[in-house]
UniProtKB/TrEMBL annotation:
Protein name listed in UniProt: DUF3159 domain-containing protein
Domain of life: Bacteria
Stretches assigned to coiled coil: none
Organism encoding this protein: Amycolatopsis albispora
One Pfam entry name: DUF3159
Length: 220
């Protein structure tokens, strides 16, 4: 019997990190505008807001490591903008990280280790069992392309064009729109592609069909 189909959002969690991705950049733009295009003020406001968000996340049970990484990213972005004297460079790390992510996800598909499968397999405690199921491997590969083009490449094109033209306010808006809303859309579309790629009768993501195992024992 085929298991009920869980969405990728259910499997991979909710909106963690959404505040980190959108609020400090928005705070930078607000501080920059309010202080007559002062990068120092924008950086100070962004870091201050990031610290408050970090405290909130710790109080609500998030791991300290994740909070420190998020805060460090904001501080690094602020230091880059202060060093170059270009407000748009606050968004440079985000631009470069999406370039790297697009290349990494594409490479993972080419070498037959699609990162969507790695992430979901880790979340389900499967280690690498999913990869020994040819049907799951093919489905994860197809769905991973949605992340390459529908998320990372799209961000590179938008962020890159706005950064190149020095559109600081538009970068702040784009950073908000292309954070959780885009992730939610990517999860929905890639989940649809993933399940549509599985043949009828496949037991589902939690139960890879591993050659040489008894039916019903694949996910154990």
């Amino acid at each position: 019997m085929t298991e009920s189909r869980e969405s990728l959002a259910q499997l991979l969690g909710g909106r963690k990190g959404a505040l980190d991705a959108s609020v400090p950049p928005a705070a930078f733009v607000v501080g920059w505008l309010a202080a007559d295009s002062s990068i120092a003020w924008g950086a100070g406001v962004a870091i201050g807001v990031a610290v408050l968000l970090g405290v909130f996340r710790l109080v609500t049970g998030d791991k300290a490591r994740a909070v420190v990484v998020s805060l460090a990213a904001v501080i690094a972005a602020a230091l880059i903008a202060l060093h170059t004297g270009r407000a748009e460079d606050f968004f440079l790390i985000q631009l470069l990280s999406n370039v790297a992510s697009a290349l990494l996800w594409a490479a993972s598909i080419v070498v037959r280790w699609p990162l969507l499968g790695v992430v979901v397999g880790f979340a389900l405690g499967q280690k690498t069992r999913w990869r020994r199921d040819p049907e799951l491997l093919r489905a994860y590969s197809r769905a991973s392309w949605i992340w390459v083009f529908g998320q990372y490449t799209l961000r590179v094109l938008v962020y890159g064009s706005l950064w190149w033209s020095g559109q600081v306010v538009a970068l702040g808006i784009a950073r908000t729109v292309l954070s959780w809303p885009l992730v939610a859309l990517t999860l929905a579309v890639s989940g649809w592609v993933l399940y549509r790629s599985l043949p009828d009768g496949h037991p589902g993501l939690r139960h890879p069909r591993v050659p040489g195992t008894e039916p019903g024992t694949e996910g154990k």
